[in-house]
């Protein structure tokens, strides 16, 4: 695996997000209230809305354009909606964030 350092845990507010630019495009980083960090393509599977501008609740984010709810662990849309956002692996070590640089995984 090819891990790249992308910042610190404190760079992302709890129940918030940040965007990083990579060769694969924009990736949205989300932090849950219990400090878990998730990374998804910053494009909603519905119409490409900016997921990082959505509302984080639990381990889900609601797209700001059409209220689709996306599971942060899998990238999958919550039923009845169908589709998924590419997911990337994130590791946290001593409050430093690392992102798997390889192509994301979609589990829809």
From TrEMBL:
Pfam families: Rieske. GO terms for biological process: nitrate assimilation. Residues 4-99 form the Rieske domain. Keywords: 2Fe-2S, Iron, Iron-sulfur, Metal-binding, Nitrate assimilation, Oxidoreductase. Gene3D superfamilies: Rieske [2Fe-2S] iron-sulphur domain. PROSITE patterns: RIESKE. One of its GO terms (molecular function) is 2 iron, 2 sulfur cluster binding. This is Assimilatory nitrite reductase [NAD(P)H] small subunit. The lineage of its organism: Bacteria, Pseudomonadati, Pseudomonadota, Betaproteobacteria, Nitrosomonadales.
């Amino acid at each position: 695996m090819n891990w790249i350092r992308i910042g610190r845990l404190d760079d992302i507010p709890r129940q918030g997000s940040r965007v990083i630019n990579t060769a694969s495009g924009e990736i949205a980083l989300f932090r849950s209230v219990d400090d878990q960090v998730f990374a998804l393509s910053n494009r909603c599977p519905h119409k490409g809305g900016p997921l990082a501008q959505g509302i984080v609740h639990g381990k889900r984010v609601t797209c700001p354009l059409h209220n689709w709810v996306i599971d942060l662990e899998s990238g999958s849309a919550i039923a009845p909606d169908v589709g998924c956002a590419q997911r990337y692996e994130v590791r946290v070590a001593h409050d430093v964030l690392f992102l798997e640089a390889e192509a994301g995984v979609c589990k829809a």
